[in-house]
Design goal:
Length: 577
C-alpha cells in the first residue's frame, strides 16, 4: 500500500505541474504526446528483448541454422528504428552477464511478438560476435577439467592408461626396457617396429657400447681417438644412397594411410650412421619420459624432497604454490629453505646463496649443536618456508603464512660447510595459556638420534629461564605425544630417583621441572604410580621402573643433553598491541 500511495502522489504532482504550466499554449499537448512516445518506446524495448531472447534460446538449442540467422538478421534490420538500435546496443552489452546468472530462463511461446521479427540488428551482430568466443573458452575449460578429473578417477580406480596409437595393445616399449608403454614416444608400433625389434635393437646397442668400452693395453691418446671418430663418421656418411622411386612411392603410401598416427619411414632419408644416432636419442628421450610419467603425481602434493644430501619421502601434503605442488619431487636449499623445480635451478641458486646458517641470533652452542632464535616478523619468508617444509611431515599443522606472532627456535648440526637444520619448535610471543611450544618437528633424517628430546628439553629450559611453567599446545600429534610422554617419564623418574622425603607435592615437582601439573598427573597415571586411597592421592615410588630407567641411561653412549650453562639468552619483552 505504501508503494501504491507513492505512485498516486507522483501522478498527482505530474498533473499539478501540467495544470500550473497550462498558461503556455502547447504544454498539455506536449505532455500527452511525450507520454505516448514513452509508452511506445517501452513497448518496443520489451519486444526487442523478447525477440533477442528467443533467438539466443533457439541458437543454444541448435534450432537456427546460419542461413536462418541471416534471414532473421535481415528482418531485424528492416524493422528496426534508430531508437531501438541504441536500446539494442545497451541490451547486447548487458546480455552476457544476464545469461550467465539466469541459466533457467524460460522463453515465450511462439505466437508472441517475438515471432514477428521485431528487434535490433546491432544486438544480433554483437551477440553473434560475443557468443562463439565465450562458448569456445567455456568448452575448452570444461574439456581440460573433465580430462584432469577422468585421469584422477582412473588413477584412483587403478585403471592403467593405454597407448593412444590406434591398434596398439600397450605391450612392449621402444627402448626394450619396459614391458608396457603409455605414450606414443614409447610405442613400437608408432615407430613402425615390433616389440621384438626394439628389444633386439637395444641389445645390439648394448653390445656395441660394451665392445667400445673395453680398454686395450696400448691405449691411444684422446686427440687421436677423436680424430679417428671424425674420420669414421665422414666415411659412414659418404655411404648414403639416393632414394629409389619404389621407396618414394612406399613413403607416400605410408603417409597417406597412417597420416600422423605413425612415424614417417626414415630408411634412406639419411646415412645409416646418422639414423642410428637419431634412434639412440629417441630411445633416451622415450626412457626419460616414461620414468617421469611413472613418477608423476596425479592426485597433487609433493611426494619427495631433496634437502642437502638427503632425499626424503613426504608424509602429508603441503600448500606450496600450484606449479610446485604438482611436481613429484621438490628441491629445497638447506640453508635458506627456498624451493626449486629442478636440480639445475637449485644448483644455480646454491652458487649464489650466501646463507650458511638460519637468520637470527645464535642463543646456544655446545660442540657442533647450535640453536638460533628467529623472529617471524623480521624474517617472514624464511619462517614461511620452514612452515611449508614442516607441513610435509605434520598432519595437524595449520600455520603456514601468518608467522609474525611467533618465535622460531631452530636447532642445527654444524660442520665445515655450514649449519644444517635438525629440527625446530615455535612458540607464541604472548601466550595467555603459557604454552611454551606451538609446533615442534624433527626432520626424518635426524629422528631416533636423541634430537627430539633435546628440542623438548630446550623448550623447558627457556621456560625455567622465564620462571614459568610451560606446556605444549594441544592437541599433540601421534609422534609428538610419544616424544613428550617419553620426555616427561624420564624427567619424573630422574626426579624421584633423588627424592628421599616421604611426602611429595605435584606443585613442587612442577616448579622444579617447569612441567605443567596436568602433564605430570597424566604421566604418573600412565606409569601406574598415582593411586587414590582412603580419600588421599598417593604417588607410588616404583623402584623397579626407576632402576630400569637408570640402567638404560648408563648404557647409552654419546647421550645428547642440553647444557644450561651454554645458553646465552634473555627473555624478550612482551609486545604491546
Amino acid at each position: 500500500m505504501l508503494a501504491m500511495g507513492k505512485r498516486k502522489n507522483k501522478e498527482g504532482s505530474d498533473n499539478e505541474t501540467s495544470v500550473a504550466e497550462s498558461d503556455s499554449p502547447v504544454s498539455l499537448e506536449e505532455s500527452s504526446s511525450s507520454d505516448e512516445d514513452r509508452r511506445q518506446t517501452r513497448q518496443s524495448t520489451r519486444d526487442v528483448t523478447r525477440a533477442t531472447n528467443q533467438v539466443l534460446y533457439m541458437r543454444e538449442r541448435g534450432a537456427l541454422s546460419p542461413r536462418k540467422n541471416l534471414n532473421n538478421k535481415r528482418k531485424f534490420s528492416e524493422s528496426s528504428s534508430s531508437d531501438t538500435d541504441a536500446e539494442g546496443d545497451i541490451r547486447a552489452r548487458k546480455r552476457p552477464r544476464k545469461l550467465s546468472i539466469n541459466q533457467n530462463f524460460r522463453m515465450p511461446k511462439s505466437g508472441s511478438k517475438s515471432d514477428t521479427g521485431e528487434g535490433s540488428s546491432k544486438e544480433n551482430e554483437s551477440e553473434e560476435a560475443a557468443t562463439p568466443a565465450a562458448k569456445n573458452v567455456e568448452d575448452g575449460g570444461k574439456k581440460r577439467l573433465s580430462k584432469i578429473n577422468a585421469e584422477k578417477q582412473m588413477h584412483k580406480d587403478g585403471v592403467e592408461l593405454k597407448c593412444p596409437v590406434p591398434g596398439c595393445d600397450s605391450l612392449g616399449h621402444f627402448t626394450g626396457e619396459f614391458s608396457k608403454h603409455r605414450t606414443i614416444w614409447g610405442c613400437p608400433l608408432y615407430h613402425n617396429m615390433t616389440a621384438q625389434d626394439c628389444t633386439a635393437a637395444t641389445e645390439k646397442i648394448a653390445k656395441e657400447e660394451e665392445k667400445n668400452g673395453r680398454k686395450s693395453l696400448r691405449q691411444a691418446s684422446p686427440d687421436r681417438i677423436k680424430q679417428q671418430k671424425r674420420y669414421n663418421a665422414k666415411e659412414l656418411r659418404r655411404q648414403r644412397r639416393e632414394l629409389l622411386p619404389e621407396q618414394i612411392e612406399r613413403n607416400r603410401q605410408h603417409r597417406e594411410e597412417f597420416h600422423k598416427s605413425r612415424e614417417p619411414l626414415l630408411d634412406g632419408l639419411t646415412s645409416q650412421y646418422d639414423l642410428d644416432l637419431f634412434r639412440k636419442a629417441q630411445m633416451r628421450a622415450a626412457e626419460d619420459m616414461e620414468r617421469s610419467f611413472e613418477g608423476r603425481n596425479v592426485d597433487g602434493g609433493v611426494k619427495k624432497i631433496e634437502l642437502g644430501r638427503f632425499e626424503m619421502d613426504t608424509w602429508y601434503s603441503s600448500p606450496y604454490p600450484e606449479e610446485y605442488s604438482r611436481l613429484p619431487k621438490l628441491y629445497i636449499c638447506e640453508f635458506c629453505l627456498k624451493y626449486a623445480k629442478s636440480v639445475t635451478i637449485l644448483r644455480r641458486h646454491m652458487a649464489k646463496c650466501i646463507w650458511r646458517h638460519p637468520p637470527g641470533d645464535e642463543i646456544y652452542r655446545k660442540e657442533n649443536i647450535s640453536v638460533f632464535e628467529v623472529d617471524g616478523k623480521k624474517n617472514k619468508i624464511y619462517c614461511q618456508n620452514l612452515c611449508l617444509l614442516a607441513k610435509l611431515f605434520l598432519d595437524h599443522k595449520t600455520l603456514y603464512y601468518d608467522v609474525e606472532p611467533f618465535l622460531f627456535y631452530i636447532m642445527t648440526e654444524n660442520n665445515t660447510t655450514g649449519c644444517h637444520v635438525v629440527g625446530y619448535f615455535s612458540k607464541e610471543k604472548n601466550s595467555f595459556l603459557n604454552y611454551n611450544v606451538s609446533c615442534i618437528l624433527t626432520l626424518p633424517q635426524y629422528m631416533r638420534k636423541g634430537y627430539g628430546k633435546m628440542i623438548i628439553d630446550f623448550s623447558y629450559l627457556l621456560s625455567k629461564t622465564e620462571e614459568k611453567v610451560g606446556s605444549p599446545e594441544k592437541p599433540l600429534s601421534d609422534l609428538g605425544l610419544i616424544s613428550y610422554r617419553s620426555y616427561w617419564k624420564g624427567v619424573l623418574l630422574k626426579y624421584l630417583s633423588t627424592f628421599d622425603s616421604s611426602e611429595i607435592s605435584i606443585k613442587d615437582i612442577s616448579q622444579e621441572t617447569a612441567i605443567n601439573p596436568y602433564d605430570i598427573v597424566s604421566t604418573l597415571q600412565s606409569m601406574s604410580m598415582l593411586k587414590y586411597w582412603k580419600g588421599k592421592h598417593l604417588v607410588l615410588k616404583r623402584q623397579d621402573l626407576i632402576d630400569e630407567f637408570l640402567a638404560k641411561q648408563s648404557a647409552k653412549k654419546n647421550h645428547k643433553t642440553i647444557d644450561p650453562k651454554c645458553l646465552k639468552w634473555t627473555p624478550p619483552a612482551p609486545e604491546t598491541s
